[in-house]
Structures are given as structure tokens and as C-alpha cells.
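Title: Prediction job returns without error message
Component: structure pipeline
Severity: low
Priority: P3
Assignee: unassigned

Description:
Job completed but the reporter wants confirmation the result is attached to the right record. Sequence as submitted:
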Amino acid sequence: MGLFDGKKGIVMGVANDHSIAWAIASYLHSQGADLGFNHLPDKDDRKRMERRVRQLAEPIGSKFIMPCDVAKDDDVKTFFAKAKETYGTIDFLLHSIAFAPIEDIRCPTVQASRNGFHVAMDISVYSLISVTRAAADLMPNGGSVVTMTYFGGEKVVLGYNLMGVCKAALECTVKYLAHDLGPKKIRVNAISAGPMKTLAASAVGDFDQMLGLHSAVAPLGRNVEPEELGKAAAYLLGDMSTATTGEIHHVDCGFNQMGSPGHAVERLAGQKK
């Protein structure tokens, strides 16, 4: 018997099989969840965006796969209206969406453009508000919302730049949404994941160096595994965390707790021998 038997939910933000959203979806499915997915609208007949999601979602029996551009209110309304037709009600929502123009991520934050800032905040932060508002209408008996963040929203991480500003805003948004939706028994939390090689991570400069730094400094001496994010999300999205809301839950092998290099010096010294 799975932890999510009989539960229905929406997963937003799967780009490919390396996505954090897919790592979480895979684990939820293994626990019995019935999952629906969005994909970005395709701009041509090749339907690459839809195909990437369908080739993952259809083998696990998903009966709801639809385009949704979270930057468009009408798209969000239509997407959740169709979800309601399919499921009636849902138990949870996973939001794993972030974007900024590449030129505005790779430059120092002080050089970020006004338009890039607007786009990044709209898609990376406001989208959580818009999709949570829509999903809440499908949670008449309460439910759970989880979004994805990163330590770069708390402290400066070299190369994270404008996206760090967005994650700081996202984490504050989680807390206010938790307050607003608490009376409806809807919980809102975030997972602050350690670095993983994803399509989004490829936009961050020196990402391989970031991976090495995290694994060297983290108390556990390694980086997080995809299934571990799935398990953490299952806790926050399911019935084991019914008194938990407004939290930023770190799943990063302890990296966020370190105020010094910790064991990194010993590990690097050992490698040189």
C-alpha cells in the first residue's frame, strides 16, 4: 500500500527526465499518486515541449497533460478548469517553475535589466501565487502546495545572481500564502534543494564547481540524490506533515547549516595525498 494511494495532484514544471519535478513525480507515482502535468505551449508543429512531458507522463498512466504558460492568466484559468473536469478535486500541487533571461542570470545582479527582472519575478515568483489561487479552488477539503527553492535565496551564491533575488521573494511568498490559505486547511511549503544537474542549472555559471563545493562542505560529504527530493516532497505533500506550513525545508545534505568550510579542508587534503 502506497502513501499516496487514492490521492490526486498536479505537477507543474517537468522539462525532461532530469528535472527535479520529475524526480518528485516519479516517487509520488511509486507511492500510488494519480498525477496530472503541464507543459509549455509549443510554438510550432514539432510539439517538442508536449512530447518531452508525454513520453514521461503517459507511461505512468497520467490522464491529464495540458499546455499552460504560467505568465498568462487565461492559460492558468483554463488549465485548472480542465483539471477540475478531469479530477473534480485534487489533494496537492507541486510548483517547480523558474525562469530568467539567460543574459540577466549570467551577468552580475547590478547589471540585470529592468525587463529581465520583471520576467524573472513574474515566472519564478508570481506564478506560485497564480497557480496556488487556481488550485485552491480544487481543494475544498484542504490540501498541500510545495514549491522549489535554493540556498541562493538566503545567501549569496556565486553565479546565481538574479535568480537568488527571485528565490528570496519566492520564499517570502510561501509564508504569506501559508497564512492566507491556512483557514482553508491548505498548507504551503518550500523545499530548498541542494544543487542537481538539471536544464535550469545549466544557466548557472560554473555549476560543476558549485557541485564540488557543496559536496565538500556539506556535513554528509555529498550532494542530494533525486529520490531524496521525492521523499521530502512526499512528506510535505502528504498526510505526515499536516501541522507543517510556511516552512522552507532544506534537503541539501546539511550544506545550509555551515558557517565555515567544515570538513572540506580535510577532504581536499586527503585528495592531495
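Comment from assignee: result matches the submitted record. The first strand starts at residue 8 and ends at 12.
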